Structure formats: C-alpha cells, structure tokens
Amino acid sequence: MIPAAFDYTRPSGVDEAVGALRDGGEDAKVLAGGQSLIPMLRMRLASPTTVVDLGDVTEMRGVRDDGDALVIGAMTTHDEILHDPLVHEHAPLIAQATETVADRQVRHLGTFGGSLAHADPAGDLPSVASALDATFEVAGPSGRRSVPASEFFVDYLTTVLEPDDLLVSVRVPKLTGWGTHYEKFNRVAQAWALVGVAAAVRRSNGSVAEARVALTNMGPTPVRAYGVEDALTGTAATEDSLAAAAQRAADGAEPSSDPSASAEYRMHLATVLTRRALQAAGGA
Ligand SMILES: Cc1cc2nc3c(=O)[nH]c(=O)nc-3n(C[C@H](O)[C@H](O)[C@H](O)COP(=O)(O)OP(=O)(O)OC[C@H]3O[C@@H](n4cnc5c(N)ncnc54)[C@H](O)[C@@H]3O)c2cc1C
Q1: Do 138 and 83 reside in the same domain of the chain?
Q2: By alpha-carbon position, which residue is closest to atom 39 of ligand 1?
Q3: For 180-220, how does the pLDDT look when each residue is reduced to its tens digit (9 = 90+)?
C-alpha cells in the first residue's frame, strides 16, 4: 500500500527536531532507520501528519567514551554498533545481541535508538538495555531528562516518550571484569526472538559476585529476572548452581501465546536459555 500523505521535515539538530515535533503536534512521528515505521506507514497502521526525519542529526550518531560509561547516540545504526571497538571492549552484550538482529540490510539502516523507542517485546535490545541498567537521555520541549531503563518501557510498543520527545542517546555503564552473553531462540535464522536472554555475570574467586539477567519476549516489556539474580549472587559459579538459579527465570513473567509459541513453551524456553546464557557468561 501507499502511505497516507504527510508533511516531511529533515532537521539538522536535536533542538530543531524537538521544535518540529512540537509544531507537528500529537500526530508527528520521528523517522530513524525506517525499518519499523515505513512498513507501518505502508500498511496504514500509522498515519502521521508530519514525519521528522533524523537522518541529518549527526550529533545523535556514534559511540563515545564518557569515563565509567559509554554514550551511544540514538541514530547509531546496528551495523555501526557491531563495528565499534568501544562497544566490543566495554559493552560486549550489546554487540552479541545486535549480531542476532535481522539481516545485514536491516542492520545497515535500523538504529539502536529506534529499536529502543519502538519497544517491540520481541526486539533484542530492550532486554539488553535493561540488563545493563542503561539510562535514556531524552529531549523534549521543556528540556532534557534522564530516564532509567527500569522506567523507560511502559507497555507493548509503549515507552515514557511523549509524542514531542526525542530519544537522544543511551548511557551504558561499562562492565569491567564481567562475562556477558545473549542467548536467542528463533525458529529460522534472522527471525525475531521467540524468547531471548541477556546475561551479565561478575565472578570473584569462583563465586558469582553479581549477576544481571533480562528476558526478551516474556511479557509486553523486557522482564528483569531478579529471582535468578538473587539465587545466583554469592553462590559458587558451578554448572549445577547456574542451572538451579535458571529455574527461576520465568518467575513473575506473563508471556503471551501466539501462533509461534504458547505461553507455557515460552516459560520453558526461558529457563533453558537462561541456563545456557549463564553458562556462557559466567560458567567455570
Ligand atoms: C525484516 C526485519 C527483521 C527484524 N528483525 C529484528 C530482530 O530480530 N531483532 C530486533 O531487535 N529487531 C528486528 N527488527 C527491527 C529493527 O531492529 C529496527 O531497527 C527497529 O525496529 C527500528 O529501528 P529504526 O531505526 O528502523 O526505527 P524507525 O522504524 O524509524 O522507528 C521506529 C519507531 O521508533 C520511533 N523512533 C525512532 N527513533 C526515535 C528516537 N530517536 N526518538 C524517539 N522516537 C524514535 C519512531 O517514531 C517509530 O515510532 C527487524 C526489522 C525488520 C524490517
């Protein structure tokens, strides 16, 4: 289908973009890589009156070192993330998950910020941002604010972003000395996750000193598996204790049933994939 007609604007800075969103009102939409928005326009699931294309907002692109954290511009593409040495050194979990996102074509256009702002429950990066305790830097008409990952994702395809808000960048604390792994289960290569698990483990003297685990597609928003984290912390990093902790992966999760998988199957997958993710991230 052909999208409904809309006004098109291509600002060159964050303030100009926020101004364009404010002027466009509730029916203005940001265009990042277009990998989710363009299909929605074509299917007329979205019919914005104004599209604000961020393609020229260069200040929202790239990864920079900011002391104890990385700051990743929202317009940084998946492909740029995959080739960024800072990401590989300080936040390898992001690279591990990004590698599993779609195919090369999508990764060349789709953006880190677009994936997070879109907040698809099956998207791989929201759970990664949750496991990494990332902070979202948001610009709106009344200025800038920081939103922790625990508050950013609100519901299915819904975040705290208002229609005239822009996700500018994401601040990711560096995890020095941690092991990380993203484990994804899909039916065919390059497909969306039936379930995914983002795991980060810090070991000390053979024990788990700290652990962070977050799940993809186990509810309308990413699910932080606090039960697993509590069960792991302070225990020996053995195969048995990692497997025992993984049994708690689905505690409190409310996954949906759809033609690809029942909720019960997703609960089962969550425990199996969490065990694998923990073994890869923190196994002996
Ligand atoms: C065939 C295919 C397979 C895919 N497979 C996967 C997969 O396996 N795993 C996965 O995680 N993803 C997958 N994706 C999605 C991909 O990761 C996209 O990059 C992502 O959904 C949207 O990013 P985008 O930059 O294209 O955003 P767009 O499509 O441009 O925007 C998406 C939404 O976010 C809003 N938005 C974008 N950027 C901002 C911003 N900075 N501030 C405020 N709002 C913003 C837009 O207004 C829009 O509502 C797939 C996509 C396709 C087409």
Answers
A1: yes
A2: 114
A3: 999 999 988 888 999 999 999 999 999 999 999 999 999 99
